[in-house]
């Protein structure tokens, strides 16, 4: 199949590597000449250009730009492609994207490959990035079923774990397990940094080990990523934060009132429930 | 040297293994016959008994019981030992323990080896558990300096990173980097479990990956450990939780008011500061 990719970063580049090795012809578009050259040199695309016209003839196009540029990318793409072309995106929030793009293009299927590394850019693209990881599709009632079927048939050989759900259910679920942890973890680092006694800070830094390392990891990561979650999944992130604060207040209350039995029950419920969130 | 260990669990047993391999004679006391037998069989102690009288002749005794039993253990030990015997404990909070035990025994040095595994008990004891990890001593103004010096000379060959500080500074520092992360992480799991839509919960469980895994790890661990932190370091844990809640409220406010620049600055400060807490 002839597949287009707009945005040749970590996700777009890694998709290109996998799709080409499965025998597809992959055409890439990036804003930057330099990225186009690297994509071809690394084998992530057969051809690459800065002009969306390159994708005129493709059957399926992955929109892999930053979320902020997805809508305008699709608008600019439309004059070049045929009505049969299937569009899909890889944005990590879905409701806002689907609401913006679905009215512009009938054959659009929202998607979210849940894979990544700490690196970004075409240089970080790698074979097999998606294998074993969830890939969520968020069609709506009006999404043509043959568009979904075709996209799934392209994705399945990447050995992803395909999920289908409403865009809103996706955004709520990722708020819980991806976006809320970032805010919770960011608040932890910010709280530690607000300790006024420099000797205590120094000691805390010297004594910090795996517990702090793990709990602070996602809150000390890429600032753009955290910002993007808050911005584009704002309502669900806020909702999860308010529920979180209630739970936090409950734990504060139990400790304050020395309700050790209730506190122990919470810890026991957590210990029992956590494995269900692990693969 | 002739060294006693009361409480032959993970910490006591591991200390015994290391100290014996450094040529010390190690005598152990446990409440349970069975534990005594395993300790000797595993080479964690030269001898072991359920009677504290076994330690009559020792130069240094590690109190490795649960925190709740430390005070009574010392009281029961005192009739058996000479005034020169140095006592030290391995409790993970220090101010309350030091306040309780220092008045009972002049040659007492509070201590906290910051090492562990997910396992517990004599079966989990291992050689080299402490190597490379912090070992905090919390002497007070009245602690005899030769008692501190002797304890340090015994510990140094274990290749621990020795720290000395006030008991209160220890408790405040570990509240930040060990106890607060547990409460923050526990609240995260509890919040996710409060989602009312079973489909969203199922989806969240299916989509959860390394971000959730790491952020929820210490909050989904041993309930007794979390309870112990809250109980014995209550004031400092509460203090850190209240500061944490302020930071959380700040992040909620920034998202609610779409103050993206301020939010990005917080993420940037976190990203810059976190490496200082990493070894």
DSSP, total strands of chain A: 9
Task: Give the low-pLDDT segments of chain A.
Answer: none
Coarse morphology of chain A: elongated
Largest sheet properties of chain A: 6 strands, parallel
Secondary-structure-based class of chain A equals alpha/beta
The H-level CATH homologous superfamily of the largest domain in chain A, spelled out, is NAD(P)-binding Rossmann-like Domain
CATH topology of the largest domain in chain A: Rossmann fold
Gap from first CA to last CA of chain A: 33 Å
Strand content of chain A: 5-15%
User: Largest interface, per-chain counts?
Assistant: A-B, 94 and 94 residues
Treating each run of at least 4 consecutive H or I residues as one helix, how many helices of chain A? 11
The side-by-side strand order for the widest beta sheet of chain A comes to 3-2-1-4-5-6
- Please, what is the average pLDDT of chain A? 96
């Amino acid at each position: 199949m002839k597949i287009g990719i707009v945005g040749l970063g970590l996700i777009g580049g890694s998709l290109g590597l996998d799709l080409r090795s499965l025998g597809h012809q992959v055409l890439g578009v990036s804003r930057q000449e330099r990225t186009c050259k690297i994509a071809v040199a690394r084998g992530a695309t057969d051809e690459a250009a800065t002009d969306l016209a390159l994708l005129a003839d493709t059957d399926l196009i992955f929109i892999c730009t930053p979320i902020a540029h997805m809508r305008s990318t699709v608008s600019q793409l439309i004059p070049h492609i045929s009505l049969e072309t299937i569009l899909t995106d890889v944005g990590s929030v879905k409701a806002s994207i689907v609401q913006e793009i679905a009215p512009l293009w009938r054959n659009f299927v929202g998607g979210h490959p849940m894979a990544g590394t700490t690196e970004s850019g075409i240089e970080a693209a790698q074979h097999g990035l998606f294998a074993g990881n969830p890939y969520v599709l968020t069609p709506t009632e009006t999404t043509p079923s043959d568009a979904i079927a075709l996209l799934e048939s392209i994705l399945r050989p990447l050995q992803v774990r395909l999920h289908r759900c409403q865009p809103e259910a996706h955004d709520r679920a990722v708020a819980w397990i991806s976006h809320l942890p970032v805010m919770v973890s960011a608040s932890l680092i910010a709280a530690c940094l607000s300790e006024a006694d420099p000797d205590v800070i120094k000691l805390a830094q010297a004594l910090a080990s795996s517990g702090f390392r793990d709990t602070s990891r996602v809150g000390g990561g890429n600032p753009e990523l955290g910002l993007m979650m808050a911005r584009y999944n704002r309502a669900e992130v806020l909702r999860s934060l308010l529920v979180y604060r209630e739970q936090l207040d409950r734990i504060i209350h139990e400790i304050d009132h020395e309700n050790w039995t209730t506190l122990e029950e919470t810890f026991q419920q957590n210990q029992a429930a956590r494995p269900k969130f692990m693969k």
